[in-house]
């Protein structure tokens, strides 16, 4: 499992983004093995950097990569490593949903209603098969519509999260991935670097 994350503090003031690719050592600590420093961020630039990494390390082909839901990273990884399984950090999935339901677009939901939405996401994540996910997500969405009195949240989930469930739900994680659900190994590295 490779953990990939970018930092936007420090070098950003100079116009650069710093990406780190992190592996877990024998003690369970995240250790960076590659840095990508770029002045422009796009899928093409991230792809170029990953191709350069591969050209210098021809045997490097990760089985899986954990990312925050960054489409630039996702597209680049899928282009360079088409057989690699990409997983989304569960914390960042919940954070994105929480931010949306507290926004004006998301209806500025009360804490009680936000809890209902997060509980629904957790129920969907627990599904161990895609078939179970379809059944549970249908039921959960119907319940959410009834409890919230609107289909605003379920419309958002159906557009932004349900089609990509294999990236965050348990049925998409049925392989050896160090039991990692979050990108904390990379996040922790950046925290140490910044402070």
Can you put this structure into words, describing what you see?
Pfam families: MULE. By secondary structure, this protein is an alpha/beta fold. Helices cover 46% and strands 16% of the residues. The chain contains 7 helices and 5 strands. Strands 3-2-1-4-5 form a 5-stranded mixed beta sheet. Strand 2 and strand 3 form a beta hairpin.
Topology:
Elements: E1 2-7, E2 17-24, E3 30-38, H1 43-56, E4 64-67, H2 71-80, E5 85-88, H3 90-101, H4 111-125, H5 130-148, H6 152-160, H7 184-194
Parallel strand pairs: 1-4, 4-5
Antiparallel strand pairs: 1-2, 2-3
Helix pairs in contact: 1-2, 3-4, 4-5
Kindly provide the radius of gyration, computed on alpha-carbon positions and rounded to a whole number of angstroms: 18 Å
Q: CATH fold name of the largest domain, please?
A: Nucleotidyltransferase, domain 5
Structural category is alpha/beta
Multimerization state: single chain
In round numbers, the mean pLDDT is 92
Report the count of strand segments: 5
Distance between the termini: 26 Å
* Sheet with the most strands, sense and barrel status: 5 strands, mixed
Task: Just name the CATH architecture of the largest domain.
Answer: 2-Layer Sandwich
Shape: globular
CATH superfamily of the largest domain: Ribonuclease H-like superfamily/Ribonuclease H
Beta-strand portion reads: 15-25%
Strand numbers in spatial order across the main sheet: 3-2-1-4-5
Please give the count of helices: 7
Low-confidence stretches: none
């Amino acid at each position: 499992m490779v953990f990939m994350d970018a930092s936007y503090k420090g070098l950003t003031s100079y116009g650069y983004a710093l990406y780190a690719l992190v592996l877990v050592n024998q003690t369970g600590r995240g250790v960076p093995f590659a840095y990508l420093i770029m002045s422009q961020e796009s899928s093409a630039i991230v792809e170029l950097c990953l191709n350069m990494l591969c050209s210098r390390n021809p045997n490097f082909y990760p089985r899986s990569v954990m990312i925050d839901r960054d489409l630039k990273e996702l597209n680049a990884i899928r282009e360079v490593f088409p057989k690699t399984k990409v997983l989304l950090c569960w914390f960042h999935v919940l954070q994105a949903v929480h931010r949306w339901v507290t926004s004006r677009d998301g209806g500025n939901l009360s804490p009680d209603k936000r809890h209902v939405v997060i509980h629904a996401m957790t129920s969907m994540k627990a599904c161990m098969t895609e078939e179970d996910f379809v059944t549970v997500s249908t039921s959960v969405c119907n319940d959410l519509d009834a409890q919230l009195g609107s289909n605003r949240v379920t419309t958002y989930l159906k557009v932004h999260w349900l089609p990509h469930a294999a990236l965050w739900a348990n049925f998409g994680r049925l392989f050896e991935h160090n039991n990692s659900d979050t990108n904390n190994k990379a996040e922790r590295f950046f925290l140490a670097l910044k402070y």
